[in-house]
Amino acid sequence: MLPERSVDLIVTSPPFALLRTKSYGNKPQGEYVEWLLEFGRRAKLVLKETGSFVVELGGAYQRGRPVRSLYNYRLLIAFCDTLGYELAEEFFWYNPAKLPSPIEWVNKRKMRVKDAVSPIWWFSLTDAPKADVRRVLVDYSPRMKELLEDPAAFYKPGLRPSAHQVSTSFSRDNGGAIPANLLRFPNTESTSHYLRACKLLRERSHSARYPAQLPRFFIRFLTEPGDTVLDLFSGSNTTGFVAEQEGRRWISCDVDGHQARLSAVRFMDGWGNERILAGWQQIGAGEQVRLGSEAAPTRQLDPPTDL
């Protein structure tokens, strides 16, 4: 059991309510909301008052029909109305590399467009969860960089036709621009250490992995070094790996024990093939293995059996 009020951030991507059963396990749409609500109830007990619960939920179609399921929006409403979470903000992850689907409606009949955006709900317990947008600033556009070099050549302070009052503060360099809630991260991993290690071990890699930029954005935005990050559906443990890189404590758990053990290879970056093979054998035998690169040794936390 995790102590109450001990986690600063939960960031996770549970199996979606897809029509086709996946190897990693996924609930049917009719059962999905009640199933995930139970995780939400338990999560409220371990989250700090200033903590956040970030969940990515991809969309789905209804069976045999070219109309969308509302399961991810029903979950949003249930988390707020039934469990008492606040919706701090909604985000949308745009994956430009996503393949067209479903084939029937997009490729064959050509009556729907490619579904390349997944909603991400940022829940909180209060109106003011820990957050600092200055930790996730993005590069200024070329136009904004020109404005910062010569503000007078680009605009004059005053009231605009849109009724917005533009002041001289628009010409202040704040080190970057405030990001939008549309996160553009291609999911194109193909030559990573994790995939190479899985191939070396002749093990099947996890089939549903989100890009490291996704948890990294929220870990930086909503936590500070030393805070605790939890992933309830860790899969290949991208979240834990990124949390380690960002100096956060982390806890990852998954119903698939084999995939949870296999995720340890993420922390064997810089190891030779023989050492990876030996380490994997030790893990299979139930032995403890010190993980991390030679330059920066680290450790993997033992996942809890229950929240």
Provide a compact summary of the structure:
With 307 residues, this protein is α/β, with parallel strands linked by helices. The protein contains nine helices and eleven strands. It has helices at 29-46, 71-81, 103-108, 142-149, 193-201, 213-222, 238-245, 257-262, 273-284, and strands at 7-12, 47-56, 86-94, 117-124, 158-159, 165-166, 182-184, 228-231, 249-252, 291-292, 297-298.
* Total strands: 11
The domain tally reads: 2
Report how far apart the termini are.
Answer: 5 Å
What letter string, H or E per element, gives the SSE order? EHEHEHEHEEEHHEHEHHEE
What average pLDDT do the residues reach? 89
**Relative helix content:** 25-40%
Describe the model:
With 307 residues, the chain is of the alpha/beta class. The chain has two domains: 7-135 and 180-189 and 209-257, Vaccinia Virus protein VP39 (Rossmann fold); 139-171, no CATH class. Helix content is 29%, strand content 17%. The protein contains nine helices and eleven strands. The strands form three sheets. The protein has a seven-stranded mixed β-sheet, with helices on both faces. Strands 5-6 form a two-stranded antiparallel sheet. Helix 1 runs parallel beside helix 2. The radius of gyration is 22 Å and the shape is globular.
